[in-house]
Amino acid sequence: MFIGHYGVGFGAKTAAPRTSLGTLFLAAQFVDLLWPTLLLLGYEHVAIVPGITRVTPLDFEDYPISHSLLAVVVWAALFAGVYFLARRYRTGAVVCGLALVSHWFFDLLVHRPDLPLAPGSSARLGLGLWNSLPATLALELAIFGLGLFFYLRTTRAADRTGSVALWLLVGFLLLVYAGNILGPPPPSATAIAWAGQSQWLLILWAYWIDRHRVAVPDLEV
Ligand SMILES: [Zn+2]
């Protein structure tokens, strides 16, 4: 899942209006931002098997540190704890933790049975929606659209940048998503990892957007 996780980040702003969109994106996509580094270090492994699903050719061979349910819950607790110590905003900390855990459950819907429950456990889960392109598109676009809808209700642009930068990001995410689905399979696992690392720029982009938008006052908590 790709833009669905960003949809969760957008939507989470409604529950935690004082948390930056950048932090909410970071939480919702945290384990996919960790994963490329673990691939490059050789702790986790991916293979490219064209046709393995209708949507993605990636075979997630093992990724217990980034994508086992137990590890994700631990990352969420750490993330929420660090955020709370830094910002003293309890609601924001809880929302970040929940957004981080939501990643695993949204991945569960689309992945083949490759998601482990805990590092070392042999049980692998996944409901396999990636075997249907229309179902995948319907689900991801719905989450993304809904999240964006709530984000737009919760914030308004403070200046021109707040509007332009947001819509450029939305367009860019949709373009990358289309490219992932329609484009050729990636050439190597290393190429996948570096494409994954480039998502850090989206986090910075979201922090930048957040500085140019303000929470709609009556939703401020
Ligand atoms: Zn993931």
The quaternary structure here is: single chain
| Largest beta-sheet characterization | 2 strands, antiparallel
| Global geometry | globular
User: Which whole number gives the mean pLDDT?
Assistant: 95
Strands side by side in the biggest sheet: 1-2
Low-confidence stretches: none
Number of helices: 10
Order of helices and strands: HHHEEHHHEEHEHHHE
Q: Given the helix and strand composition, which structural class is it?
A: mainly alpha
What small molecules does this complex bind?
Answer: zinc ion
Helix content: 55-70%
Percentage beta strand: 5-15%
Alpha carbon gyration radius? 17 Å
C-alpha end-to-end distance: 31 Å
**Beta strands, count:** 6
Can you put this structure into words, describing what you see?
By secondary structure, the protein is mainly alpha-helical. The chain is built from ten helices and six strands. The strands form three sheets. It has a two-stranded antiparallel ribbon with strand order 1-2. A hairpin with a 7-residue loop joins β3 (115-116) and β4. α3 (30-41) packs across α9 (189-197). It binds zinc ion. Zinc ion binds next to α3 and α6.
